[in-house]
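Hi L.,

You mentioned the student needs an example of a multi-chain input paired with its predicted structure. This one should do, with 673 residues in total across all chains.
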Amino acid sequence: GGSVPIADEVIVSIQKLNTIHNLDETSGILKCDAGVILQDLQQYTMKRNFMVPVDLGAKGSCLIGGNVSTNAGGQYLYRHGSLHANVLGLEVVLPDGTILDLLSSVNLKDNTGYDLKQLFIGAEGTLGIITKVALHCPRLPQERNVAFVACQDYKSVQQLLIMAKDVLGEVLAAFELMDQGILNLVQQDMKIPISMETTTSINTKNENYPFCVLIETQGSNKQHDMEKMEEFLEKAMSSEICIDGVLSQDLTQVHKMWDVRDSCGPVVKSTGYLYKYDISIPIGDFEDIALEMRDRLGQSHPSAIVVSWGHIVDGNLHLNITTPGIFEEDPSLTKRIEPYIFESVIRRGGSISAEHGLGQCKNSYLTIAKDPKALNIMKSIRTMFDPHGIMNPGKYLPDDHRLANHNGTL
Amino acid sequence: IFQKMKILVGVKRVVDYAVRVRVANNTIDLSNIKMSLNPFCEIAVEQAVRMKESKMASEVIAVNIGPAKGGTETLRTALAMGCDRGIHITTEQRTDFLEVQPRTVSQIFKSLVDEEEPSLVLLGKQGIDSDCGQVGPMLAGLLNWPQVTFAASLEQGDDGDSTLKLDRETDSGTEQLQVQLPSVVTCDLRLNEPRYATLPNIMKAKKKKVDVRDISTFGDAGVDLEPHLQVLEITEPPSRQAGIVVQDVDELVSKLKDEAKVI
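Structure written out for the whole complex:
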């Protein structure tokens, strides 16, 4: 709820600041206004054989300035790095009206002073409004291959991830997990590329595998990438780390496999009221936390279902809970989930918001998620930039009174 | 006849359906562009493999006319989907109509039909590069076989096991036909949804036999390899102009009148 007003705030839209300035083809540095739609930026760079290093399902409507303000992650973060790495410069309008120019002389390497732009990346508009962005763009990969594979248990999924990093090496671009629960939901909308055929004496039915993984390689040489992908899949199948799978033969199949992954969010949202959690935890804990929540809710709210998917290569899990057919929030269910789930994440050494940010839904939990000394420094920084508290008030950091009375619990 | 039926399937290598085609120097620019199996040929392969799985056929042979490296990749896709073996006719000439044209392709296929004696030739209804749709009908003519183009469904016919019953899509509706084998059938979109290549089948495909021959061997045997149609000019269609948002009805009316000239 970062961009949703709480009271009588003025909503500022920068969508009219939408000029793409230029792309230097030797360095890959792209300069544009912050109001350019991500998809438009992608098409501009694609025509010139470059790619924008961030990609999201909302590409048709989200603005690059918003992506920077929220430090958007997406499915290629492992390969191309986060916006903290790829943003080379910004122009920001500060709360007092100062135009901060961190962009007119932009370089790939610049170690002159504190790297101020990093503060604004992911600040969710609390320190200023980003008006221009300079991004480093990698060359467009000539070759994309996607494999959609199945694992019989979570241990195999982890082994598959290590094998992918070893065998695919530098061409590994994405490694996305989907559990049986989410596959069952997505299947109502579209065909899953692989499933278990269980034959009984009466009939044959198709069941989804316990875990499916989407693996993408991106590279500059078709033969090289194909060889690596086939070597990896052969190794994975023969060691039974992977028990089934298909490999894309053309771009249409690449898109169709990604459609399955991309529809996870929309499908669960249309199933019932959505309780969504975007967490970072040790990769070994992914299955465990889903089982923990299933177990906890199984006793108190048996109609709720827990499904999960995510950017497993980044240690980022999207844990979603929904009440199929019921589209109103059940406050008793929310209470049963929160803050229990956040406490479980913190106990495991994780982050309560891996990429979705804080907004107004998770900011109050920062008091248990972060060291109070760190929180106080964050508050000082916010006060320094915005002494009158005009920028996105009530969001991002916990409200003052909570901070003052903090004693380690809510 | 079905138990021993051989099927010959054409598999063409074309610019990938999802890729934007570039025109440069009065030709289609194929440099660094992604190439894949023609979607209609993919449907033909799927149909052939299903017929084998349902015991309507015993052997499926995939045929490609294409460059040394690229043609093998296309055949590997067909083999991974379930074809038994492949025939790769190598040529470095352009197979997107500019150099190797439907007349030549049809004559090559006739030659292969004489050699392999299949009861059914399954082809895509057209290549998405040339949009000709001519090989199916031309081949049927050369063979003096019945043809069914734009097949939307295919099953065993009512008159014994040497006939097929098909639905054929036309602009004015769907026809239901029965045809006596041997026959040429070209496949349309509604016929089936092609399978993905599974990992076990991709591995198996590596061991399947591909017979490689140079296109010149067909020339020596009397096939006319020359293109008889010359492409004079290739241009891109006019690019779509961006829409504009008008401020009010007056501006809309004036733009429709003065710029679009439709009122």
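You could point out the following to them. Chain A touches chain B at residues 142-143, 147-149, 193-194, 230, 233-234, 237, 242, 244-255 (CB under 8 Å). The radius of gyration of chain A is 22 Å.

Best wishes,
N.
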